[in-house]
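cron nightly-structures :: item 1 of 1
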Amino acid sequence: MREFGLIGYPLSHSFSKKYFQEKFIREGVADTRYELFELESLDKLSDLIHSRPDLKGLNVTIPYKQKVMTFLEELSDEAAEIGAVNVIKIKEGKLVGHNTDYIGFRQSLVNWLGTERPAALILGTGGASKAVEHALKKMGIEYRFVSRNAGNELLAYTYDELNRKPEILEKYRLIINTTPLGTHPNTEVMPPIPLDAVTAKHKVYDLVYNPEKTFLMRSVEARGGLSKNGLEMLQLQAEAAWNIWNQS
């Protein structure tokens, strides 16, 4: 029996187990299971791995995509460059970190935008934002981060600054939410952007996929804009993770 799973905290919102269970049935993958492992602390990661000898790979979600890197023996070139890990391959007790968020986000964004390349605001500066930044760089899309406190982050606005200068949104027509705000069960919240500056020319890509339409997505659509959730990204990154786990 081979085992795979997801680590993070909390995990009540996750579709990963359902996705892989359905994949295993659809593709006739035998003697394989996928579980959710809620870890209140990464200090419990070693115990998890040692207690489950059939574990061959893990997905990593909020809030551990950056913190988990110090627990790994090796990083792929992509994960090292991005500075975040969402996939771990376990081989002969060795933990190797990869990043497939970048693959999933980039492909789904290309599918949605076509040849359009609007300047983007990345809401949040956590682990998922690093994969988004990497994808935008590869696509030649201009971007700025937005966070509560810009701190040492290069190319960053604060939310306060964005609300004081809503005209910033005239330039940045693509809004990408990498924060967990709006995720089930707290669905009626969103990052504090100036909605009065949002027009029919704006698009929002929300990495949240549960609920299907977040408060942010609905708010942008109400002003004539377009929206996309993170479900396709989840599916694409999951398939890329599966390929990594099954490489010899």
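cron nightly-structures :: done
The first strand starts at residue 2 and ends at 8.
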